[in-house]
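Box 3.1 A note on notation
Throughout this textbook, protein chains are presented in two layers. The first layer is the amino acid sequence; the second is a token string describing backbone geometry. Keep the layers aligned when reading.
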Amino acid sequence: MKNRRDFLQDSLAFGVLSTAILSGFAGNAFADSNTTNTKGATMKNVQLGNLKVSQLGLGCMGMSYGYGQPKDENEMIALIHKAHDLGVTFFDTAEVYGPYTNETLVGKALKPFRDKVVLATKFGIRIESGKQIVDSNLQQIRRSLEGSLTRLQTDCVDLYYQHRVDPKVPPTEVAALMQEFVKEGKIKAWGMSEAGVESIKKAHSVFPLAAVQSEYSMWWREPEKELLELLESLGIGFVPFSPLGKGFLAGKFNADSTFAKDDFRSTVPRFEKENLRANMALLEQIRAIAAQKNATPAQIALAWVCAQKPFIAPIFGTTNGSRLVENLQSLTLTLNAQDLQQINTALAKIPIRGERYSGEAAKRVGK
């Protein structure tokens, strides 16, 4: 009998996901019953404001930035095309990734089917002398949008996020500018990334947000305290990034793993040696759950996030074709209420060591 990994490889070879299996996925019982059919793949959809996106999206940052040297452009374009073939219609980038180079890559890759996908990018962080500066000056935002449109080879951004809240610029002013952009036909919807609940309320009262992006996973559950309830009450979609814990929850590392200086994780306290070693207890728990479900740890982590709320559309990152298929096969898993209760009870007993950001990066979130 084939094991799950053999099945994943078969799926990649045929370039399709099993429609029959996907139709039985019950991890998010309230997900949009409509589906996106793309060259044989079937994917449930989630509504983010006026945008309909695939339940799982692809975060493209790591292809160009953040995790070591940029990957081969042709290989990454092929990977993005493969994701589209398998039903992914939601792709995420940002001006600062590179900077600029990731938008150029994504724009080139999506050009053949631009009208078939939802493209998200971000403004609000500029580079000055090699340092990231939070800047939502309204004139700067206009310049950023024009630059993004050029690099992305498009005349309209589907979802335009404020990457980080700028304390010097009221969220209401940013929201008003986003409304202007929509009227001008330059964006379809807007969102905020890593914003605090008060900033979200203020911005939404002026011009409704389609989505809020923030980290959320089995090892970072802070959004459960206030954010998820607020988004549900306001009808705002939620786009979790790093649902695989920057690779940790996928089982990519062991207690002795180290990270190069050009890998963002080398600056993250959670990945420091002592913390990484302590956090292996969480991974072992996830592996035990995965064994019970005949799944991989990554699939459990993604299915868990998808199952939390009906308005959630996680974006995972990968530069590997087999990992892409493995992650999408998380949609074959059924996590019912009893499963979630058991998993959450187990997770609650495991303390997580280390913060998720350090230094300036930590100061920029939750504003």
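Confidence is low (pLDDT under 50) at residues 1-33, 36-41. The first helix runs from residue 4 to 14.
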